[in-house]
Amino acid sequence: MDPSEGRDVNGFCADWDAAVEADPEIDPFCSRSAWQLSFSEAFSPERTLFLSGEGGDYVVLAESKDPEDGFGLEPVENMWGLGSSLIGSGAAEHLVAELRHRPR
To answer: pTM here?
Structure first.
């Protein structure tokens, strides 16, 4: 499942980047859409992105393709760990709500 399906990607990225700017607790460069999506395109274009957000709270993850682990979600930029996958004070709650709607 990709919560970003059917959304305007440019509009989503603009809102995502605005949320990054507003969150003083995360890296202001590596958490931005340009860094995260460039990493995805360069190193793991086969992974399905799990991008969701609203009201200043964003979740930026990708599906893990490790056959030993089964299904999972991991940071989009999973090599250096410089960016944040949870943006905004309510991002964890937003993730929980999205996962509750995810098919099992």
So the answer is: 0.83
Structure tokens at 4: 């970003």
The DSSP bridge partners found for residue 50 are 61
C-alpha 47: how far from its chain's center?
12
Secondary structure (3-state) at 56 = coil
Q: Where are the alpha helices (DSSP H) in 23-88?
A: 33-43
The total of other beta-carbon atoms located within 10 Å of residue 10's CB is 9
pLDDT of residue 79: 93
**Number of other residues whose CB lies within 10 A of the CB of residue 52:** 22
Let me know: does 72 contact 63? Beta carbons within 8 Å: yes
Residue pair 73/63 in contact (Cβ under 8 Å)? The answer is: yes
Q: Provide the 8-state DSSP code for 90.
A: T
What is the C-alpha to C-alpha distance for residues 34 and 17, in angstroms, rounded to an integer? 9
